[in-house]
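Please predict the structure of the following assembly.
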Amino acid sequence: MRTNTRAPNRWRLVAPLLVLLLQCGCWDKIELEDVAFVTTMGFDRGEIPGHLDVTLEIMNAQKATVALGNATQNEPRATNITLKNTTPLMVKDLANGVITRRINISQVQAFLISEKLARTVDLYSVLASTFRDPEMRRETPIIVTRERAETFIANNVPRFETLIYQFYRYKLNRWRDTGIVPLSNMNDFLRAHAAERPYLFIYATTEHRRPPHQGQNDEVIAGEMEVEGGDPVEMIGAAVVDRGKMIGTLTGEETRLVLLLGAKLRVASYYMIFHDPNDPQFMISTRIKNENPARIRIDTRRDPMTIDVEVPLYVEVLSIPSKIDYVTDLKLQKQLIASIKTQMNEKTEQLVRKAQRQWRIDLFDWERFARRQFWTWDAWQRYDFRRRIPEARVHVRYRIEMLDFGKQLRPDERGVPLRGID
Amino acid sequence: MRFGLSREQPSERGTNPSTDDLIGQRELMAVAFFLLVVKGADSTTTFLLSFGGNAGWLSVFVYFAYMLPFLWLVTRTLAAREGLNLIALSEETFGVPATKAMMSILLVLGFAATILNMRPYAFLLEVMFYAKTPATVIYVLLIATSGYLAYLGLETIGRVASLLLPYALLSFGLLFLGVYDILDYDEIFPFFGRGWPLLTGPLAHLGIVVDMLYLAVFLDRVKGGTRTYWNGMLSGSGIAAVSAAVLLWMYVTAFGYPAASGTLYPFQQLTRLAHFGWYINHVEAAFLGIWVLASVVHFAVYIYTIVYLFQYVVGAGDFFRLIVPTLGILFVAGFYPYRSFILQYTYRAWVVYALTATVFPFVIALAVAVRYRFRRSRGHRRAD
């Protein structure tokens, strides 16, 4: 006989109401109206040793709501607060001295660290105090600013982006393709720091200065671009951090080479210029594609170890201002390929020398590939890769897989080379 | 005198009269899965990474390889007297006093392991998600929900587990899709991580996976007896081993090594990194829901086992009346004031050593004794 398992009616009414208890979220319920979302956190050296000046850029979230747009049009899109001589997380409470809503750092789009702080203090100790907080997210990008982070935040008022978080989102997504800025974030920094590897941070500034040389294009660091107009922020190149401290900078082009040689620039497309081999005063513009990562072979049995890097490139020649017919003349094409390889090799050699002789670090993160040759962690640690890298014999070979000429068949013979234009 | 050793005993009050509180292979597989897989997403990962280093994911397979012979041994031993569970067989072989003594030890160790496992779950939820909610409240909720599921009986636990299994597997798949672009596959090298400790560590800490053998206590509740038990445990623990190994592998490749070994609550931190495209991020709540449900099933089995042993040891008449006192002890003991996780790990290591040193020799001794008796009785029959 089946027993009647239907619950009495009164319980059937009350039971769904119990679900409401789960909706209230105990003590941790958050009303969106009650929260002030921090978009950017900046860290500078405090006047007292061991203390930091922490700047919070708090977004006016109501600006994001179309319906409320008219009501909030007279309000600023963000407000900045700088608390002097404090710690990164103390500001979450202290800031309420001048801000009405509860500070929330779960939506922070970037941590900004001033170069002065990065060069003098172990960045791990600065960031460690933030990542223990549950609101902090490991994917948050980190940027080293040439000026004080406080100044950077104050100056960074993008022309088109009403909400500042969009600025960082769009900017970083663009760098994913071009490689002239490394994509640095908290998780990758912690990974590199624990393994005692150097790490590249995004380098940026809002203070422009006269470039040391003209016509350098991407061979500059932030603040040295030959540019007029646009947003106040210049973001190009990288800050090199080793053992927690900043030890130097890389130009945009060097940064891309580092990523390319470390097989970190995958399925990327970017523009590069080379001297015309038959008329060196002209620059040939190309679009480079990396459809395959670099092949890196490291022989740790040799002493010094050898590192062979083979970089496959797909080169698309887009502009030949000299009007030399590289398109149909195969002999000239060979010269062009040889010239591109030579120019790439020269730049690479300089960079490798800088890494091995000047900084004595594994700038290209080749350690990841050397580890494959060891079966156990103990054997790997005994090998002491870090100590051996400055003496390693490095051979880099560029392999141009295909030379293409865009959507134009040949240079227009009736055209006048650029030098004829005065 | 025997105490509640089979479902015919009056002390067993089933809540599912239609099926008489029996579970089948699917339920057993799901229960075994949740008993083990949650260990890849809680503080056990610290042990696993300490054994293998960046090859911590391999240590999961090492555990599986070590566990299989014991599982086979238990199955074969129980198959010799089909229809009896581990306690009944032990009583028949070693006698009631010895069995009671052994089950008392298992009960105390089971209690200690449950307490030392449960409290960190409450702290995890507090630290990672509910910063303002007192850990006590979270702990009470966890005990209450797990206890309620245990109260509903083994069949309900098995059904909930089998219902949840596809969702758990789906969430692992989604987690991989959410983080695949941040994984650095080179982090798994050197391939054998810390080398020998990869093999010796799990051997010394076999107690971590002893739950599998505890389940033999309810063999009389399994439809199909030892065959179902073997199939269910093998498939459940196999899927769990692969899932836990993939989780460990994701921790190492996402956080890097040695950074992963210093990361507390790696599963929760990994779910925070998950994102789908540019805009779909901050999706950890979806994974949290599945994880909490899996944890409730996990602890429901623990509580059910403890109550079962408790009932046997004290000779209580009603299985279900012991639930509330058991939950009360769990609650009070959970507040033992150790102040740091390091101490908690130390206590947990002791319990694991103790489990390793008692359960496995007991299983071997039982197998040998049953084999000896079986041979002797066969010899007697031949002589007759």
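DSSP finds twelve helices and 14 strands in chain A. The longest strand of chain A covers residues 306-319.
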